[in-house]
Amino acid sequence: MSTQPSQDIETFPNPQPERDYTIRIRVPEFTCLCPKTGQPDFATLHLEYVPDRLCIELKALKLYAWSYRDQGAFHEAVTNRILDDLVTACTPRFMRLTAEFNVRGGIYTSVVAEHRAPGWTPATPVTLP
126: burial class by Cβ within 10 Å (0-12, 13-18, 19+)? Predict the structure, then answer.
């Protein structure tokens, strides 16, 4: 069992690479530091992605998120950096990261960042009666 955070993002082969499907992951205990005050910022990360050849391994994602605990970062910067790192690791067809930060100074912040692979088009949603 690992007792240290890690910037390594492990992946595994997508078991159904021929199909578009969505993986949704919620990370409710994300923490980084305010770059101005050094105070902790708490957030819930909502990750949604359509994998291509690789999927993100969950334990590695947990250790990766933990690696931000002592890093100062603005909400916008950390959200986009995490998205970039995850996209680099697994090259998904589509990925969206929503970071919902807890209140700071009476203000809640949500940052949404997306990646779409060139040439990928989502399937038309099915509307049921």
Answer: exposed
pLDDT digits 0-9 by tens, 88-109: 999 999 999 999 999 988 999 9
Residue of 32, 41, 55, 90 marked active site: 41
pTM above 0.85, yes or no: yes
The CATH class that applies to domain 16-116 reads alpha beta
The domains of the chain are located at: 16-116
Catalytic residue among 34, 55, 70, 84: 34
46-89 confidence digits (pLDDT tens):
999 999 999 999 999 999 999 999 999 999 999 999 999 999 99
Quick check: is 41 catalytic?
Answer: yes
70 is catalytic: no
